[in-house]
């Protein structure tokens, strides 16, 4: 007997909840913000809007379905099941946070604050939840993701981009190669390497793309192609600056061999969830075999 679908509502702690947790009470938080020329009521109103959105989405889940909630900080400890339908209630970045924990489950992005969020990934309103849950697998876009795998089996997946470099963004020293060093190879000192997807082309990747004059065509979110850029490569007798950007098609990989005491790799801006890399280690970056199924 097959299990009924489970609706998993993913959310994050609001700014208001964080303020009250830090200062103890609403009144104390209001006093601190007022001393800085800010009004807590705006933040409290956004908190109430998020709570209402969560309640409306939860009420739209069919009665025959199971239901669960998970806060962003608990995602790494939550076990998603194949029959889950994931409802991300919040900001675009929350979809990126949950993407790496999924293996084909459909994702419905619900915007809790229209006008403040770009709405690239949270494309729907709470009132749309019932209609979307009636056919959750229909109309999905399959978004390309990026994967980094180290030679000690450490692995990292991201929806927008993966950054490889020094913790704190100091100078990183490494050897960069294409397709397992069968292509071009260069020893570099730089501020790190960024490898991004078409979804990431609306954020950090786009800033580097614009800085370099937009010579490489940006991939679409569903295209199995990545762009990579070296940040601020430094020329010296031992380090070069010729291998600083490129594209990675579905079967291609970018290889970074560590020549520093300690480098890291993190995805989608989450530095606390990083690969720890030491001298001589090798990490390969390319298109991930799985895709994020985002309901359009």
From TrEMBL:
Q: Which GO terms describe its molecular function?
A: NAD+ kinase activity
A biological process (GO) of this protein is:
NAD+ metabolic process
Return the InterPro entries for the record. Answer: ATP-NAD_kinase_PpnK-typ_C, NAD/diacylglycerol_kinase_sf
Q: What is the lineage of its organism?
A: Bacteria, Bacillati, Actinomycetota, Actinomycetes, Kitasatosporales
User: Which superkingdom is the protein from?
Assistant: Bacteria
Q: What is this protein called?
A: Inorganic polyphosphate kinase
